[in-house]
Amino acid sequence: MKKLLILDGISGVPLGGDLKRAFLNIGINAEYYDLAKIPRIALYGVKSGLAKLANRMQDKSGDTFFYLPKGDQKTIERLIQESRPDVILVVGFLYKFIDPAVLRSLADQHHADLYLYDTDSCNLYTKRREFVFFLERELPVYKKIFSCSKVTADFFKKTRKLDASFAPFGSNFIASPTTSDDNKAQDVVFVGSGDLRRILVLESIREHVSIFGNRWKRNFPLMSKVLIERVDDRPVWGDELYKLLTSAKIVLNITRGPYYAAGTGINLRIFEALAAGCFLMTDYCDEIAGLFKPGEEIETFNGPVELQEKVRFYLDHPEQRMQIAKHGHEAFLKHFSWEHRARAMLETMQS
Predict the structure, then answer these.
(1) How far apart are CA 210 and CA 229, in angstroms?
(2) pLDDT tens-digit readout, 204-225
(3) Domains and CATH numbers, the chain
(4) How far, in Å, CA of 349 to CA of 340, rounded?
(5) What pairs with residue 165 in β-bridges?
(6) Could you tell me whether strands 186-191 and 248-253 are parallel, antiparallel, or unpaired per DSSP bridges?
(7) Is 118 helix (H, G, I), strand (E, B) or coil?
(8) Fewest CB atoms within 10 Å of the CB: 73, 212, 254, 314?
(9) What is the pTM for the complete model shown?
């Protein structure tokens, strides 16, 4: 690989930029472009409305999804001409910014291989029409798909006959594990957006947990008064997130409902917690047990009752908690830094 161009469709999280730096650190010439900053096509609102109307007239069933990409195609053409990559890696998705078929054509013209790091298709599980659109209109343009979900990668391979493989997330080093609770001001910290499944699980430990993230206020009518008082309804990233993680005796991860129902959901928070030397507790799935040893490198739970029991146990047994945190951090250092993940992707691309 002579030049890698990363097109980031999910720049609201730092993953794409972290990947770029990781590829640079392993000696790959990498360039990054944030698709959210691509200039919009002129009169996008009007054109989008007309395009949707035309699509409805053609599709009498009313059961197809349509989305007019908002990005200016000429900007991507110039970017590829100037960057001259031989590999293009899309992070997240493309269809909201550029027609995937257009990028495939541009990649072919410039003799570049086109890959996807699928980080968000799980969010489409409950949006059937949009998920079908993504499967049929975007995924086939890629030479290979890396997916953060093994369940999803297997689905792409077995159902859609696509070349897909499991590529779990990583993280940058944040902090080393501690040997005492002196600076652990919080019992349990959960960072993530609000949904019903998370509420039902968190109610079981409402006396211990501190909650950070968005979309919680809209769910207040579903929550107890005690749990509401534990909420700071705003997104946190970067240094503030890392301080929160390292301030907790237990970092809790709860998979969102659609992911949990599909038996998947190894999200970015898992790797950030381990990179920060934290004791991580997450809901069990086969994917997580395939990457880490429950009870040795992380801890898992099945349902609110078991979560409540394990939270009480590990708050009362700090030595065992810290030993697990130490082993989890070691597993991160050995396998899950972004440099390790970039090398694994590179090996697959070159094979």
Answers:
(1) 9
(2) 999 999 999 999 999 999 999 9
(3) 4-170+338-350 (3.40.50.2000), 186-335 (3.40.50.2000)
(4) 14
(5) 146
(6) parallel
(7) strand
(8) 73
(9) 0.94
